[in-house]
Amino acid sequence: MRLVGIARHPVKSLQGEAVATAQVELDGLRGDRIWGIRDESTGKILTGRRAPELLHAAATLAADGTPRIVLPSGVTCDGPGAATDAALSEWLGKPARLVPAATVPAARAEFFADATDDASEAIEWTMPAGRFVDAEPLLLLTTASLRAAAALHPAGDWNARRFRANLLVDVDGDGWVEDAWCGTSVVRIGDVVLRPRALCVRCTMVTRPQPGLDEDRDVFRTLARHHGGLFGAWTAVGAGGTVRIGNEVVVEPLVVAQRDGIAEEPVRR
C-alpha cells in the first residue's frame, strides 16, 4: 500500500490544495481546517452543506499560516482582516468574517436531515475545539473504496476531491477496505502512527457541484443504499511526523493499550 494523495483545506469548506508532503500533528494535518468563515448574523461557521457556494472558492496556505482565498470572481483575499471580511460579505450577501479555529470556542454548524433535500430540517452540531473538523483530526480514504463505489454508480464521477479526505491510500482490490481498520488497527506511514476510529457519515457535501465536478445526488444515494451512507475513516493521530506522496503504508492488526483513546505500540503477531 502506498500514500498517493495528501490534501489540506486551510479554510473550512473551500477548495483546498494537494501537496506532496505534509506535517501530521496530534490534532491533524498542519494547516488543515484552521480557518473558517463565520456568519456574523448567526455566529455559526459556514459549511458547504448550508452554503454550497463556498465550494467554488479556493484557499491555499501562506508561509505565515494565513490563507490566501480566491473567490469565484477572481478576487483574491490575503489573510484575515477588514478587506477580506468585506469581500467575503459582498460575495455571500451577508455579514461574514474569516476566523481562526484556535481562538474561537468550539464552533457550531448545520447539516440537513435529508442529504438530498436542502429544504429538509437543518440540524446543528458542534465541532471539536481547535480546528474546524467534523469529528476526528484526519479523514482517510482508500482507492479500493473509490473503486467499489464507482462500480455501483459508474455514471458518477468518484474523484477523490469530492470526498475531501486528507490522506488517500492506494490499496489493491475492491471493497470497503478501511472499514476493517476502524477500532482494530494502527496505520503506519513512516514515523506517523494513525488510529482509524470510525467511518465517516456522509452528507449533502458529496453531492455538491464544484469546480470540475457536477452535482450528483446519486453519489450519496449510492453510498446510502449500499454502505449505510459511510465512506472513509475518521482517524486519530498516535504519533506525528512527516508524510510524503509515495510513502509505504502499513496496517497492523493489534491488541492495544490505550491512553486517552489513542493506540499505543502494537503487539505484533
**Given the helix and strand composition, which structural class is it?**
mainly beta
* Number of E-state strands: 20
Q: Major sheet, described briefly? A: 8 strands, mixed
The value of Rg in angstroms is: 18 Å
- N- and C-termini, Cα separation: 19 Å
Q: How large a portion of the residues is in β-strands, by DSSP E? A: 25-35%
* Total count of helical runs of at least 4 residues: 3
* Assigned CATH class: Mainly Beta
Fraction in helix: 10-25%
* Model regions low in confidence, pLDDT < 50 over at least 5 residues: 265-269
Keywords:
three-stranded antiparallel sheet, disordered C terminus, 269 residues, M1 Pyruvate Kinase, Domain 3
Short summary of the structure?
With 269 residues, the chain is mostly beta strands.
Folded structure, characterized:
By secondary structure, this protein is mainly beta. The chain has one domain: PK beta-barrel domain-like (M1 Pyruvate Kinase, Domain 3, Beta Barrel), CATH 2.40.33.20. Helix content is 12%, strand content 35%. The strands form six sheets. It has an eight-stranded mixed sheet with strand order 2-1-13-12-16-15-14-18. It has a three-stranded antiparallel sheet with strand order 4-3-17, with no helix packed on it. A three-stranded antiparallel sheet has the order 6-7-8, covered by helices on one side. Strand 12, helix 2 and strand 13 (167-170) form a beta-alpha-beta unit. The longest helix is centred in the N-terminal third of the chain and has 11 residues, at 82-92. Mean pLDDT is 91; it is low at 265-269.
